[in-house]
Amino acid sequence: MTVHDQPVAETPDPREFGLSVLPEHEIPSELTALVADVRALVDAVAHTEAGPEDLAEARASVAAATERISGTRRETGALMEQTRPDGTAEYGTLTNVVSGVTNPASPPLQLERSGDGLRAEITLNGVYQGPPGLVHGGWIAAILDQALGGAASAAGMPGMTANLDVNYRSPTPLHAPLEVTARVTGTERRKVFVSGEVRHNGTVTAEGTALMVRFDASG
Ligand SMILES: CCCCCCCC(=O)SCCNC(=O)CCNC(=O)[C@H](O)C(C)(C)COP(=O)(O)OP(=O)(O)OC[C@H]1O[C@@H](n2cnc3c(N)ncnc32)[C@H](O)[C@@H]1OP(=O)(O)O
């Protein structure tokens, strides 16, 4: 394995591959505010003990809101372009289920460059529950997958996850700040090796390694 010690490269522009890209500043603030409100709604619905009358009224309001905004739909694969503090661009699908800015189902995980890779802080609510009071293992894997893929992408080597290996070391609590870290550990031809962790109070609750296979730019 060759340790990846190249300087950080610019991520290829997806427009060159015919993909549709929306700059972050073109997303209406009303949409991001609505997304936050819907996240709160999902949490409220998941945990409510309201009575039938209130539930029926809330349902009618939600149905009306859905009808109001359903007339136009963005294409499923649309990407968002963000400009990093260092001026380079990064891309991700708008509705990515882990990080998507317009997806109320995403927590969302917001990764930033840190040290030799990426880092995020996140607190997950009861919507992401598996065992009582704990984060679902599938969501931990999804968060690690996103962080590991993001680390490869941030190093200028975006690709697809070919293999993901997760070890759950200790229970990951809900409603508690978690730290997510990821970095590239090596490369070999199109193979990008990545590793990452989820921590609570400095203790690793889960760690993952993945093989990302870089998109083939040769066409
Ligand atoms: C910022 C955005 C972050 C996004 C994070 C989220 C990431 C995701 O969730 S991606 C979605 C889940 N992943 C997928 O759906 C991928 C499905 N699989 C595929 O499309 C293909 O198998 C793919 C692209 C991974 C590899 O196919 P292909 O491009 O034909 O590569 P291929 O020539 O077979 O393999 C390239 C190298 O990788 C190796 N390889 C491929 N798959 C594996 C595997 N599963 N295990 C081990 N090695 C593998 C091959 O042996 C080969 O190695 P070498 O260079 O030594 O010969």
UniProtKB/TrEMBL annotation:
One of its GO terms (cellular component) is cytoplasm. It is a peripheral membrane protein. Its main location: membrane. Pfam families: 4HBT. Its EC number is 3.1.2.2. Keywords: Apoptosis, Cell membrane, Cell projection, Cytoplasm, Fatty acid metabolism, Hydrolase, Lipid metabolism, Membrane, Transit peptide. One of its GO terms (biological process) is fatty acid metabolic process. InterPro entries: HotDog_dom_sf, THEM4/THEM5_acyl-CoA_thioest, Thioestr_dom. GO terms for molecular function: hydrolase activity. Residues 133-204 form the Thioesterase domain. It is an enzyme of class 3 (hydrolase). Gene3D superfamilies: Hotdog Thioesterase. It is found in: Cell projection, Ruffle membrane; Cytoplasm; Membrane. Signal peptide: none annotated. It catalyses: octanoyl-CoA + H2O = octanoate + CoA + H(+); dodecanoyl-CoA + H2O = dodecanoate + CoA + H(+); (5Z,8Z,11Z,14Z)-eicosatetraenoyl-CoA + H2O = (5Z,8Z,11Z,14Z)-eicosatetraenoate + CoA + H(+); decanoyl-CoA + H2O = decanoate + CoA + H(+). CDD domains: PaaI_thioesterase (cd03443). Belongs to the THEM4/THEM5 thioesterase family. PANTHER family: ACYL-COENZYME A THIOESTERASE THEM4. This is Acyl-coenzyme A thioesterase THEM4. The lineage of its organism: Bacteria, Bacillati, Actinomycetota, Actinomycetes, Streptosporangiales.
